[in-house]
Amino acid sequence: MEHAELSTEQVLRRDIPWETYVSTKLISGTTLQLLRRYDHRSETHRAQLLHEDGPAYVRMFVHVLRDIFKEETVEYVLALIDEMLTANPKRARLFHDKTLADEDTYEPFLS
């Protein structure tokens, strides 16, 4: 099966070695904490996290996409974003939150 044929569900079954990215300084300890809270959790749990601090999770997704180029990881984070927006399309507003004014939240999607 080619990568292009993988479903979001299949991509999200992957175990991404987030700790490796911390040890190589590609992600911060804060990003790792956010990922651990969010990754492999129920939609209900994720919805609560996004309700409480959605912009922090959007910033985390953007930073991972900007700083990590490994295909499996990029596909995984894009699948998380897809799942987040599919569950509630209004979450797209999180990408426009005023706390993200200093971030180019769309840049990783354009490269």
From TrEMBL:
GO terms for cellular component: vacuolar proton-transporting V-type ATPase, V1 domain. One of its GO terms (molecular function) is proton-transporting ATPase activity, rotational mechanism. It holds the Pfam family V-ATPase_H_N. PANTHER family: V-TYPE PROTON ATPASE SUBUNIT H. This is V-type proton ATPase subunit H. It comes from Arachis hypogaea (Peanut). The lineage of its organism: Eukaryota, Viridiplantae, Streptophyta, Embryophyta, Tracheophyta.
